[in-house]
Fold this sequence. Notes:
Elements: H1 3-11, H2 35-47, H3 54-68, E1 73-78, H4 89-110, E2 114-119, E3 132-135, E4 138-141, H5 155-158, H6 163-184, H7 199-202, H8 205-226, H9 234-237, E5 241-246, H10 250-255, E6 257-259, E7 266-268, E8 273-276, H11 286-292, E9 298-302, H12 308-318, E10 327-331, H13 338-351, E11 357-360, E12 367-369, E13 375-377, H14 379-396, E14 402-406, H15 441-456
Parallel strand pairs: 1-2, 1-14, 2-5, 5-8, 8-9, 9-10, 10-11, 11-14
Antiparallel strand pairs: 3-4, 6-7, 12-13
This protein binds phosphoenolpyruvate and cobalt (II) ion.
Amino acid sequence: MSSAAVDTLxxxxxxxxxxxxxxxxxxxxxxxxxxxxxxxxxxxxxxxxPLVFAGEARQLLGRLGxxxxxxxxxxxxxDCAESFDGVTADSIRDKLKVILxxxxxxxxSAGVPTVKIxxxxxxxxxxxxSSTEVVDDVELPSFRGHMVxxxxxxxxxxxxxxxRLVQAYHQSASTLNLLRAFTRGGFADLxxxxxxxxxxxxxxxxxxxxxxxxxxxxxALRFMAACGISxxxxxxxxxxxxxxxxxxVLDYEEALTxxxxxxxxxxxxxxxxxxxxxxxxxxDGAHLEFVRGIKNPLGCKLGPTATPAExxxxxxxxxxxxxxxxxxxxxxxxxxRVSDALPPLLxxxxxxxxxxxxxxxxxxxxxxxxxxxRKTRHFEDVMAEIDRYFTAHAEAGTWPGGIxxxxxxxxxTECVGGAEAISDDDLERRYxxxxxxxxxxxxxxxxxxxxxxxxxx
Length: 457
Ligand code: PEP
Ligand code: CO
């Protein structure tokens, strides 16, 4: 897009209201077969209570403001796509354990406070590069996440069903309920730091290294107690854990958008933070129009084709008030392209003095298909992108803010490489993702240690 065309967009935007996105082209929306049942579902969702409170989203904004100022690091992690079937206590607990472990490694080894955001309690919708899938000459709509349709390859399963929006709400509510219980009710107490190391992770090199960190924390706690420092500080016993997902299906997001009674401002109460994906970040599109009016912290993915002019316009549309923490730019360039594609964007945003949080998503630019037909990512490609991302920030004099990763607490084999050298053949063993391949628990910990080394170098 030419910069002249770019310049005119933000200045010609009329006023915002929750449905104002409907006047714009909306990419990646489900083809609902029946508008009548969609309207019924809308009425149901409109009456359901918010999942998060505006005050919590404001608290996260403050934390991200600290990241923006270079005083904290953000860890955004979770499934590529959550599954309705996967909302079990064990899987939520195990995912939380790994995120807590990663955060502890970053905070203890690198000495920076870590803001924890899950891709969880609402990550049920996926953009697709093709709207249909062909198997044995049969063409059906692509799977778009459990909020929209089912993964089985049959006409019935692949037909978009608006009732799933209501189910997504209830699944999000029960996930969030358990997360709140775990993070407030003693499970996330730093004295539990050893208990987060699940058996299969403890046996891995990252898990063994983690035991050393856990021992260091335990002895620091004992030392503090011996010095008479009160062990009652809430920070030692609870963690602030925030939720996020891609704001993709706008009928759902609009229904959960509510006016805060304290400030009168609009918040999308489906999650604390919402992000816009690489496929839906068109400057004149419906997704940007929708999120510009909500006050939650926002993210936007940036792939290798993003231009400096586009990114500056995006900053103007999404953060005209230049509020630190409001906007996180999530670079997902691929290991091969990040060193060329990212520096011009860092320089443009820095020179325009736009306060943004930068995050590196080292997953989505590094996906490939094996000879056996499995979508995977190599751990070393993921690490190479992170390394080059850090180098680009060091050269630009900007803070490398955080990482955005697809992980699970389960002992899956979806990404190859890592200390346990998962091979192409291993992928057949436990390949369980609903969408993109995730780092398993051991790989996630290893990644956290390597980032902590880089942060403290
Ligand atoms: C994702 O985060 O799962 C995703 C689809 O990412 P992107 O928009 O960067 O492709
Ligand atoms: Co993904």
